[in-house]
């Protein structure tokens, strides 16, 4: 079995500033990899480089496609990369507005990926959209409503449905619960946990919240100043942190 | 004699060449919007400057020109444009579709079937079919280049979700030659089937947006739809009050203050032809 | 018969960077092995490293050096410095861990918390839930609590949910950290019976039992953590 995603020596600079440096890892099918760190640690830059949204200055990212072998993500034509992003990959943005069409109904949002790959039966598309709306626990009678009428938590769940309808193998998530109320977060995390398990998703999840990492990820990479300072099994990194920065992060969590 | 104050057909020769090059490119890539250097015309934007520039670039002394506006030869704009070309291009003009070699039209396709050798010039306000869905020009160019037309299908889905059917009745999007999505200009969807494999050459000119596109003769043009909501044209219960036609596109006219309505053919030439046939 | 678990030369220390990189050696040259049907009790004074050793066996703590080998899928797997997915696979199929504290996941009912390890192995949800309910019943959790998330349960109830969760998947190896600490006498006896049953069925168990009576009831051997080597 080959890794699903392989990063080697990823480095990205903005002028003189190093955003991320020398990052390498393999992600295996069924794994959820968390990337934690504080603001400015480089984790979002790393995510964007992995998802082909940004081109690294050094290093490469290899992705094992469903049926076309291994591809170098940054050597793909834009057409192929965009197709990949719409089919085998998902990208969940922190701000749901960036990942949704706010001006069309929830059903249209969810159905878009299907239509983009050639689905042409309205009834079937609508049914698939309904199924997914249910899976993300949004009332079916909201199917024709636009996301402008949704709460933040609902928008985030809609964004997830919009991504998962094409049954992606790899989902990139950028602070998916950021900015949501705690109870809404809890519900969303539980939903994500369930979906990851049920659909055997692999994911790279960027978060600054160690609680989210504990709940959702199998493995963790801790980033500081663009470098990966520690990595390993999530519970091991959080319960037995080796690096000074990780120890500081873990110790900083406010007790409830 | 053409008006000596202007070059033949108003535009200078270099401009005509530039427009002809754009037209050739457009014909070579059916449905693809070719940018061109639109000139200042003696009409403002929104009055058909694109169509006029295309006609001016291709017209010659042997041509016979017909100009219609929403199907009618006798509206103010149709008359103005026809007179303009009569003056600067010294051409025969006509209201008879069969006699014309070039037909410039705003928002309709003639009812009378066209033939090989005829050219239909459309006046286009917004050439980009995706404009209302994606305001960024950079993005729409990318979508066309990559054939990513899901967003248009999404808008049709949305229409069904909101209205129970595809509610778009004019400027109905089409796929040309199986490749480029095109705006057929604001013709009623009734006319869309006429574009499919038409023996005539279709040229589309947008003056304000400065784009030219084309559909060569016999090119497949397919209106977008869903398998379970197939494309349908408009129908009327009434027939034309003047000629009795049941097959043409009818305009609804209010004839008095009491709200009396009449339905008449929008294509004035077609209607007149039918009436003359009957009178025989 | 092959042991299920064998440890040799295990060293573990903690380095507290916030305290000027203060290094605390906890485990020094630990060696032990556990066979199917054995229950090895880790003994030693408080702070000696019993919990540290147990967590190291589970891959939750990272030893500096040494070897922890687990009999997994008919082969030996080295856990020290192993890839995360290797450890996850061992945890999914071979090794269960009952920690002192139940990590509570919001919104998931007790039945589903218990059923999860079995569902992860591919069992149908209905079947897993039925077995979970059975175990919860055995452990004296009232039925009205089964659908509720354990966040509001008492310490003893949470502990029993934890235990049920470790028993549902029939792991060949069980690691138990004070499994009866919060339980009253009646419940404790029930748990002891369950664990003893498993032991007799061939499960290899390593446990920390503060209560001597419990230890005597289940353990077949002891390992003294304070001394290097240390098995008796």
What tags apply to this protein structure?
heterotrimer, A: 256 residues, alpha/beta, Rossmann fold, 2 domains, four-stranded antiparallel β-sheet, 9 helices, 10 strands, 25% strand, globular, B: 280 residues, seven-stranded mixed β-sheet, three-stranded antiparallel β-sheet, 7 helices, 28% helix, 18% strand
Q: What fraction of the residues of chain B are assigned to beta strands by DSSP?
A: 15-25%
Shape of chain B: globular
Low-confidence stretches of chain B: none
Strand content of chain C: 25-35%
Query: At the third CATH level, what is the topology name of the largest domain in chain B?
Result: Rossmann fold
Number of helices in the DSSP assignment of chain B: 7
- In total, how many beta strands of chain C? 9
Report the CATH C-level class of chain C.
Alpha Beta
What is the domain tally of chain C? Answer: 1
Give the CATH superfamily of the largest domain in chain B: Bacterial phosphonate metabolism protein PhnH
Largest sheet of chain C: 5 strands, parallel
Can you count the beta strands of chain B?
Answer: 12
The secondary-structure class of chain C comes to: alpha/beta
What does this entry look like structurally?
The complex is a heterotrimer of chains A (256), B (280) and C (232). Chain A is α/β, with parallel strands linked by helices. Chain A contains nine helices and ten strands. In chain A, strand 4 (58-64) and strand 5 form a beta hairpin. Helices cover 28% and strands 18% of the residues of chain B. Chain B has helices at residues 13-28, 49-58, 76-89, 137-145, 150-163, 192-195, 268-279; strands spanning 34-35, 64-69, 92-93, 102-106, 119-123, 174-176, 180-182, 201-206, 211-215, 221-223, 250-254, 261-265. The mean pLDDT of chain C is 91. Chain C is 35% helix and 26% strand.
């Amino acid at each position: 079995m080959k890794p699903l995603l392989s990063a080697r020596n990823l480095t990205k600079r903005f002028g003189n500033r190093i955003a991320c440096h020398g990052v390498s890892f393999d992600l295996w099918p069924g794994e959820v990899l968390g990337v934690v760190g504080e603001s400015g640690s480089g984790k979002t830059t790393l995510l964007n480089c992995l998802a082909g949204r940004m081109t690294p200055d050094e290093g490469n990212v290899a992705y094992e496609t469903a049926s076309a072998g291994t591809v170098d993500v940054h050597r793909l034509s834009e057409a192929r990369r965009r197709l990949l992003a719409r089919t085998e990959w998902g990208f969940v943005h922190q701000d749901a507005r960036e990942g949704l069409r706010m001006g069309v109904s929830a059903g249209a949002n969810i159905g878009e990926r299907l239509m983009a790959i050639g689905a042409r039966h309205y009834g079937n598309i609508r049914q698939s959209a309904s199924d997914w709306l249910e899976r993300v626990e949004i009332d079916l009678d909201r199917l024709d409503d636009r996301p402008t009428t949704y709460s933040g938590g609902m928008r985030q769940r809609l964004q997830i449905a919009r991504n998962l309808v094409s049954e992606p193998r790899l989902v990139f998530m950028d602070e998916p619960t950021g900015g949501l109320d705690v109870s809404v977060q809890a519900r969303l995390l539980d939903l994500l946990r369930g979906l990851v398990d049920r659909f055997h998703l692999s994911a790279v999840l960027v978060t600054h919240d160690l609680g989210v990492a504990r709940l959702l990820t199998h493995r963790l990479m801790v980033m500081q100043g663009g470098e990966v300072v520690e990595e390993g099994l999530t519970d091991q990194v959080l319960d037995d942190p080796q690096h000074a920065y990780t120890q500081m992060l873990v110790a900083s969590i406010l007790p409830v | 004699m053409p008006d000596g104050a202007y070059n033949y057909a108003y535009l200078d020769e270099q401009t005509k060449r530039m427009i002809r090059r754009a037209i050739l490119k457009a014909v070579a890539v059916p449905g693809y919007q070719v940018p061109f250097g639109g000139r200042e015309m003696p009409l403002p934007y929104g009055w058909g400057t694109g169509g006029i520039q295309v006609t001016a670039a291709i017209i010659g002394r042997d041509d016979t020109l017909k100009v219609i506006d929403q199907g009618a030869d006798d509206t103010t704009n149709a008359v103005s444009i026809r007179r303009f070309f009569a003056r600067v291009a010294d051409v025969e003009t006509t209201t008879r579709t069969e006699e014309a070699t070039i037909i410039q039209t705003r928002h309709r396709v003639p009812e009378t079937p066209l033939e090989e050798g005829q050219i239909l010039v459309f006046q286009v306000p917004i050439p980009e079919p995706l404009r209302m869905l994606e305001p960024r020009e950079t993005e729409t160019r990318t979508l066309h280049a990559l054939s990513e037309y899901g967003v248009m299908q999404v808008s049709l889905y949305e229409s069904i979700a909101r209205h129970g059917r595809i509610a778009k009745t004019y400027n109905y999007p089409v796929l040309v030659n199986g490749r480029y999505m095109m705006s057929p200009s604001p013709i009623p969807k009734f006319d869309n089937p006429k574009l499919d494999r038409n023996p005539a050459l279709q040229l589309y000119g947008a003056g304000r947006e400065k784009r030219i596109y084309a559909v060569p003769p016999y090119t497949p043009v397919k209106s977008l739809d869903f398998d379970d909501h197939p494309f349908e044209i408009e129908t009327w219960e009434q027939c034309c009050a003047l000629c009795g036609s049941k097959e043409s596109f009818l305009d609804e006219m209010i004839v008095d203050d009491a709200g009396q309505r009449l339905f008449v053919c929008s294509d004035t030439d077609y209607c007149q032809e039918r009436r003359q046939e009957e009178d025989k | 018969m092959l042991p299920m678990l064998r440890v040799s030369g295990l060293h573990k220390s903690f380095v507290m960077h916030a305290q000027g990189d203060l290094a605390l050696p906890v485990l020094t040259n630990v060696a032990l092995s556990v066979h199917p049907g054995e229950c090895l009790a880790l003994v030693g004074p408080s702070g000696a490293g019993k919990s540290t050793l147990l967590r190291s066996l589970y891959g939750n703590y990272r030893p500096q050096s040494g070897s922890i080998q687990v009999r997994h899928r008919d082969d030996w797997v080295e856990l020290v410095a192993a890839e995360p997915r290797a450890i996850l696979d061992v945890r999914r199929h071979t090794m269960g861990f009952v920690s002192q504290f139940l990590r509570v996941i919001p919104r998931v009912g007790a039945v589903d918390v218990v059923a999860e390890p079995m569902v992860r192995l591919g069992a149908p949800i209905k079947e897993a839930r039925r077995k979970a309910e059975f175990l919860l019943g055995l452990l004296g959790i009232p039925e009205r609590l089964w659908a509720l998330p354990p966040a509001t349960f008492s310490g003893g109830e949470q502990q029993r949910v934890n235990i049920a969760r470790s028993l549902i998947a029939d792991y060949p190896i069980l690691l138990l950290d004070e499994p009866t600490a919060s339980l009253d006498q009646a419940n404790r006896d029930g748990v002891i019976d369950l664990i003893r049953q498993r032991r007799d069925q061939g499960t290899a168990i390593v446990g920390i039992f503060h209560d001597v009576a419990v230890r005597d009831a289940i353990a077949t051997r002891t390992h003294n953590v304070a001394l290097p080597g240390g098995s008796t």
